[in-house]
Design a protein that fits this description.
Layout (H helix, E strand, L loop, with lengths): L3 E6 L10 H19 L3 E8 L4 H10 L3 H18 L6 E4 L3 H16 L3 E11 L4 E2 L5 E4 L8 E2 L16 E5 L7 E10 L5 H9 L5 H13 L4 E2 L1 E3 L13 E3 L1 H20 L9 H5 L6 E7 L3 H14 L7 E5 L2 E3 L14 H5 L4 H9 L9 E3 L1 H29 L11 H8 L2 H9 L3 H22 L1 H4 L6 H22 L4 H11 L30 H5 L39 E2 L12 E2 L16 H4 L4 E11 L7 E6 L4 E6 L7 H4 L3 E5 L5 E3 L2 E3 L2 E7 L4 E4 L14
Parallel strand pairs: 1-2, 1-13, 2-3, 13-14, 15-16, 17-18, 18-25
Antiparallel strand pairs: 4-5, 4-9, 6-7, 6-8, 9-10, 11-12, 19-20, 19-22, 20-21, 22-25, 23-24, 25-26
Helix pairs in contact: 2-3, 4-7, 5-6, 11-12, 12-15, 12-17, 13-17, 14-15, 15-17, 17-18
């Protein structure tokens, strides 16, 4: 019997464009759904925009539009980009919809009537300058568990602890940088602690990956806290029916968006189906249908504890499984706007076709939660080699010999046993798709592609075709090759749906049935071959990473570009070298992303400074940064290794200040960093910026520049 399956991927935020990290998740989900449909299963894929919350409200205010206008625009852009990446959603909806409002109220009232909602007064962060209560993630500070600085108000990215903004040490508002006030307000809580036994059993089942279960065990050890599901006005969201002026916290109504999207699909498509599409079958009974959520590992807490508890408390079924994946890094590091590696879906699609990236992601994805790296060189080499050099090469090489014979395939294969060997791999590859071990599946498929190319090379149909007496033999060999290609294309159809459709038109077949590979394609007419894929242009790939326009900065940041220190020897040697990590700018050229930029005092260097214009001044991007870690560098008497937080990312900077500062003096300190200096590889590691300092040549003192109280990491210095 065909399986009935409902699949979702996480809801993208409605206040930002889709980036390649989300496309990774959408591809992971879409490939699995397409595979299930090829296997004959009744599989639905639904998703929605996450449209509510303070971030959406604030983004709309900044643009001078209403939240509704922002949500509508984002939805159109998200649909466009998802379609551009061939994501075959059956329904893409919004949490700002009548279905979601009705269902959220319905589930809340069910929880309330069953005694799972309580009310109590809480102390809540309030930004007096902005005039609103702050969501958890709009408060940052020092983690109360591990003392890591600059952590979110709901969880620590370093130790994984969860807490409330009131638990943070040294809290501050992300909006204004001010210290929030704490005001009492009555809030509604979902009694998560009432579901401890149920959740322990659920977590212990096969519904979650081992790495996720291990993390949840840590949370159980700390104890489950009741969940604050209300927020005070002003708030863009769904008003709580029995609490005027209170709104549902976005993480309460957002997962309900999965149900709302299903309902929207059911209302518009169910009538066209011959079978009954029952709400109860999908959302009340776990015996008739399967429910799977694909998510990023950073939202595991909400999907594996809160969400199953909410469903169970309202009398609905729990997910069959929640599958988390790792983050996407670019060239080994987090995506960064300042480095030009924050690649949006639109930026990619404006330069390159979608299927090479779908294949590249599939070739790296497994069933675990490990991070995936997008290396431009690897992407270029792998897709050109596998898709063009191996896969498409089989079809293009063989098609010409078929066309010479009138375009009709031979009636028999010269080596049917070899064809059967390829076809017998269908079950093994299907098992890899089912378990989301896509990388292993791609390796197995490309091994078959190598074998197919070796077959063609071994029999050399181009040589046989020169002799009319061997023309039929050449056609038979080409027919065998075309059948190899058909099998490979069938195995790759979930990953390359557009290519499969084009190849289907060429061969006169459909790639919608996984089992079709059992029967070879013989004695049929095929169409003239046309290119199925082209090699990627290295220039177009390289252009994916494009540094943004430089921001204004102060003259002190030029660190050599302005030759400000030409007449003032810098600390220690007066040269720039990997040994010292000190940039002195004695040559008037950029010194490299290492160490400390120093300038003279008083009038010592005033006469040596050359005038600059405003454009030169604007080239240097100065940012406030917080020193997270400071370490001695083994083998150097002058360098310290600093890990600095620039707000959206962390970087490593080597600074020649060991003679002036001890590492423990620097941790937590605000410094000024040249953020757009090219990284430099040193024998101690790669330095990714430069901290600024003043120096006095008379006593060789080094004094770090700092920012005034209230400055936040990432702020520009102008």
């Amino acid at each position: 019997m065909p399986r009935k399956i409902l699949v979702t991927s996480a809801l993208p935020y409605a206040n930002a464009p889709l980036h390649l990290g989300y496309i990774l998740e959408a591809t992971l989900t879409d490939v699995w759904v397409r595979f299930q449909k090829m296997r004959g299963n009744d599989c639905l894929y639904v998703c929605a925009d996450d449209a509510h919350g303070t971030p959406v409200m604030i983004s709309a205010q900044r643009e001078g539009i209403t939240p509704e206008q922002l949500v509508a625009r984002s939805a159109a852009e998200h649909r466009r980009d998802l379609e551009g990446f061939l994501i075959g959603l059956d329904q893409f909806h919004s949490t700002h919809s009548s279905e979601n409002r009705r269902l959220t109220e319905q589930l809340y009232l069910a929880e309330r009537d069953r005694g799972y909602i309580t009310r109590r007064s809480v102390r809540q962060a309030y930004d007096a300058q902005a005039g609103l209560f702050l969501p958890d993630r709009y408060v940052r500070g020092v983690c109360p568990r591990c003392q890591s600085p600059d952590q979110y108000g709901d969880s620590c990215e370093v130790c994984g602890s969860t807490y409330t903004p009131a638990d943070l040490l040294e809290p501050r508002s992300v909006l204004t940088g001010s210290t929030p006030e704490w005001r009492d307000s009555e809030h509604l809580f979902f009694r998560l602690s009432a579901f401890d036994a149920m959740l322990r059993a659920y977590v212990a089942s096969s519904s979650l990956q081992p790495a996720v279960r291990a993390k949840l065990d840590e949370w159980f050890a700390v104890g489950l806290s009741d969940w604050d599901i209300s927020r005070d006005a002003p708030y863009f969201g769904i008003e709580i029916p029995d609490a005027p002026g209170k709104y549902f916290y976005v993480w309460f109504d957002a997962p309900i968006g999965y149900i709302a999207s299903f309902e929207a699909w059911r209302n518009s498509h169910a009538a066209a189906r011959s079978d009954d599409v029952s709400f109860d079958d999908y959302w009340r009974s776990d015996q008739r249908t399967e429910l799977y959520h694909f998510i990023g590992k950073d939202i595991s807490y909400f999907h594996t504890l809160f969400w199953p508890a909410v469903l169970h408390g309202a009398g609905l079924r729990r997910p069959t499984a929640v599958w988390a994946h790792g983050f996407l890094t670019i060239e080994g590091q987090k995506m960064s706007k300042s480095r030009g590696t924050f690649i949006t879906a639109r930026r990619y699609l404006d330069q390159l076709p979608p299927e090479p990236l779908r294949y590249y992601f599939a070739a790296k994805l497994g069933g675990g939660v490990e991070d995936i790296d997008f290396s431009l060189d690897d992407f270029l080499a792998r897709t050109n080699s596998d898709l063009v050099g191996k896969l498409v090469n089989i079809a293009s090489r063989c098609a010409s010999f078929i066309e010479r014979s009138g375009g009709r395939l031979s009636a028999a294969l010269p080596e049917p046993a070899l064809y059967e060997q390829f076809a017998r791999q269908a079950d093994a590859i299907a098992a890899l798709y089912e378990s989301r071990e896509y990388a292993a599946a791609m390796r197995a498929i490309m091994e078959l592609a190598d074998e197919a190319n070796r077959y063609i090379d071994r029999h050399k149909p181009w040589a046989l075709a020169k002799d009319p007496a061997h023309a039929e033999q050449a056609r038979a060999i080409a027919t065998q090759g075309i059948n190899f290609f058909r099998i490979l294309m069938s195995y790759l159809a979930p990953v390359l749906p557009q290519m499969a459709q084009t190849a289907g038109g060429f061969l006169g077949v459909s790639f919608e049935d996984w089992s079709a590979v059992a029967r070879p394609l013989l004695a049929t007419q095929i169409s003239p071959y046309r290119a199925l894929a082209r090699r990627l242009d290295p220039a177009a790939v390289a252009a994916l990473i494009e540094l943004p326009a430089p921001a204004p900065a102060t003259a002190a940041a030029t660190a050599g570009t302005l030759a400000a220190a030409k007449a003032t020897p810098a600390v220690a040697t007066g040269t720039s070298s990997a040994a010292t990590g000190i940039s002195t700018a004695t040559t008037g050229t950029p010194a490299a992303a290492t160490g400390t930029a120093t300038g003279g005092t008083g009038g010592a260097s005033a006469g040596a400074t050359q005038p600059i214009n405003i454009d030169e001044f604007a080239r240097v991007d100065l940012r406030v940064a917080r020193v997270e870690r400071a370490e001695l560098v083994e083998g150097s008497q002058k360098l310290l290794r600093l890990t600095v937080d620039l707000g959206s990312e962390q970087r490593t900077v080597f600074a020649g200040i060991r003679g002036a500062y001890q590492p423990e003096q620097l941790v937590g300190r605000l410094v000024v960093v040249v953020a757009n200096l090219a990284p430099r590889k040193m024998r101690f590691g790669v330095s990714e910026g430069m901290v600024l300092a003043a120096s006095d040549p008379r006593d060789e003192r080094v004094l770090l520049l700092s920012a005034d109280s209230g400055a936040l990491p990432g702020m520009r210095v102008r």
